[in-house]
Amino acid sequence: MQALRSVDFEVRDGEVMALVGDNGAGKSTLIKCVAGIYSIDDGQIFFEGEPVTIHGPKDAAKLGIEVVYQDLALCDNLDVVQNMYLGRETHDPLFRLREAPMEQKTAETLKSLSVTTIRSVRQPVATLSGGQRQSVAVARAVLWNNRVVFLDEPTAALGVAQTRQVLDLVKRLADQGLAVVLVSHNLVDVFEVATRITVLRLGRNVAVYEKDKTNQQEVVEAITFGAPAPEEVVA
Amino acid sequence: MSSAAPAEVQAAAEDQDSIAAILRARWTAIRSGDVGSLPVIIGIIAIGLFFNSKSSIFFSAVNFQNLIQQMAGVTVIAIGVVFVLLIGEIDLSIGFVSGLAGVAVAYFQEAGTGHQYPGLIALALAILTGAVIGLIQGSVIAFIGVPSFVVTLAGLLVCQGLILQILGTQGVIGIQDKQINDIANYVLTKNTGWIVAIVFLVILAAADFGSYFSRLRAGLPTGNLLLTAVRVVFFGGLAFAAVYVCNQAKPRPGVPLVGLIFVFLVVLGAYVASRTTFGRHVYAVGGNAEAARRAGINVKLIRILVFMISGAMAAMGGVILASRLNGIDLTAGGSTLLLDSISAAVIGGVSLFGGRGRVTGALFGGLIIGMVANGIDLVGYSDAIKLISTGFILLAAVTLDTVLRRRQAAAGR
ipTM of this model? Predict the structure, then answer.
């Protein structure tokens, strides 16, 4: 089945690019293609100007592309440190885990992102609140010196205060020079943190807007009916 | 904490490591459903007191020796079960895999045939048999996606059939090889027993204090030094007490070799599960296989390796059981062996839902199963009572797990 067709999408260092669209527009599919979860049939991915091939999550991770999924992709039974280092544990030549440096680095990373509400990094993730869990997932992206971070509906399940926390975190990511892609249904959130906005509709990209030169009305129309006319679009 | 850290941070870290704070944190954890080994320890004490009141020899040295030999097979098989349960799967073939391994070890030492090998080679071949069966089952589960329940059910039938086929009309193979018979029946000399206890204490102390001081150097919360010492003294003391009791047994004083074997395998398994990347990935696959896959963990490989561990441990358990009987017959691997082994892991606190539990649970669970079987035999109750009581203990353990799981989930939100 063809989910996406002739989609062009770009994001630059230090900006928050919002990716919006109705249900089924292909936002999550696009992310999963870039993250190596799905393989692409056709088309090219450029990273820092170079064409790259991504065949699996490991390839994406190697390039410095990290995805924070809607369903979080954390292991509830593991603690914060274990989740942060999942699949990339620090170990000695005998595959023995080196817990102390992992715990130190986790604590430092959380502090650098001003995530202060987590009492202990040795708590199982199951005991954290939704916002804290989301923070852990986002912090994992930062820990690995990633260049591009995709956030899939990071605030969908959160209350007001926790949404605040996460949006602040998103801004800090871009401030640290990362390229951030924010997938969201919530246009209020999008307009609060995004630099630019890409609209997807029915598996095609419809328009790219500068946040400062558009408004919610225009974006909603693009989501629902497609872009009004090409010359109004800032590419 | 480095000396540059603000005073209040230092104070907080010290406060976190005080005994009162640790006990408080532990109590909070217990109330939110993380009870650790507490229920199983209470269970062991309760069962011990009960049988002590019914039989004067339950707490005798010779019965302790017996208990070690009786629980060995199930405990070793249960180590493999723990790994399988940790990734959220089940292995129903372990009973007859262990039986088949018993047949293999007997077959490969059979005197006067073309396939007689030295004992240790026969042992290695038997364990290899188990690992290969695990490899096949694990591959079908991981690559094709057939549920493990069905794959290992098929494995159960196939292995049972193979046992019948190999033993044939003869129906029994005796084991004359001394090395193989020694596995379950040899008793260490008194002094060797003491040396083992000393080595155990040294390793335990090195591991616990080593971890304490490496965390201290890294400026991380360390836990309380006194509590660490108490822990080392307690578990080291248990080892010395066990050696002391075994050395009092008559007519053959000393620690059974097989006790040393299963304690070694439990410690090894616990080490692999909690201190290596492989172990971490096992927990991750059991906790959230999709998250593990997205994190770049080779989930299929982990599943296959775990089923190989399960097969190899079942085989080792089977060899122990065959060695104890000095031979193998058509009942090998049958009866309640499969369910006892799974029960041991579950009673030891390993969740059937995956991702939660410890390898040491196999030891505790094996001990409880062994104590019930041993005690009921001593008191002279029937097998019916044995089955019924084991059933209720198992039900209690699973019910507890389910309730605690719900409680932990509730504590999170």
Answer: 0.81
Strand A50-52 with A45-47, pairing: antiparallel
**DSSP code for A174:** H
Decide if B291 and A72 are in contact by the 8 Å CB cutoff.
yes
**In-domain check, residue B231:** no
Residue in chain A lying closest to B210 (CA): A100
Interface test with B, best of A37, A59, A75, A95 (most B CBs within 10 A): A75
Asked if the Cβ–Cβ distance from A100 to B215 is below 8 Å, we say yes
Range of the domain at B354: 39-49+57-186+256-406
Give the residue from B70, B77, B69 showing the smallest Cα distance to B187. Answer: B69
Superfamily of domain A16-75+131-232: P-loop containing nucleotide triphosphate hydrolases (3.40.50.300)
Kindly report, residue by residue over A127-166, the tens digit of the pLDDT.
888 788 888 888 888 887 788 888 888 887 777 877 888 8
Cross-chain CB nearest to A57 (options B220, B294, B356): B294
Q: Determine how β-strand A65-68 pairs with β-strand A50-52.
A: unpaired
Distance CA B212, CA B190 (A): 33
Does B11 lie at the interface with A, CB-CB under 8 angstroms?
Answer: no
B372 closest CA partner among B65, B69, B76, B70: B70
Q: What gap in Å lies between CA B304 and CA B140, rounded to an integer?
A: 9
From start to end of A71-147, where are the E strands? none
In 10 A of CB B22, how many CB atoms?
Answer: 15
Report the domain count for chain B: 1
Q: Which contacts of B148-157 are long-range, i.e. CB under 8 A and separated by 24 or more positions? A: B148/B84, B148/B89, B148/B90, B148/B91, B148/B307, B149/B90, B149/B92, B152/B90, B152/B91, B152/B92, B152/B93, B152/B94, B153/B92, B153/B93, B155/B92, B155/B93, B155/B96, B155/B97, B156/B92, B156/B93, B156/B95, B156/B96, B156/B338
Query: Which CATH number characterizes residue B288's domain?
Result: 1.10.3470
Within a domain: B123: yes
| Residue B338 Cα distances to B95, B162, B166, B354, B364, angstroms | 4, 17, 21, 19, 17
The CA distances from residue B181 to A2, A27, B172, B321, B375, in Å, are 65, 65, 16, 10, 25
Identify whether the C-beta of residue B157 lies closer than 8 Å to the C-beta of residue B136.
no
Residue A205, token pair as written in the block: 């990209």
Q: Is A182 exposed, middle or buried (0-12, 13-18, 19+ CB in 10 A)?
A: buried
Q: How confident is the model over B193-233, as pLDDT tens digits?
A: 999 999 999 999 998 888 888 888 888 877 778 888 888 99
**Residue B24 is assigned to a structural domain of this protein:** no
B6: left (phi over 0), alpha (psi -120 to 50) or beta: beta
Q: Is residue B150 part of a domain?
A: yes
Give the angle subtended at the CA of B156 by the CAs of B155 and B158, to the nearest 5°.
60
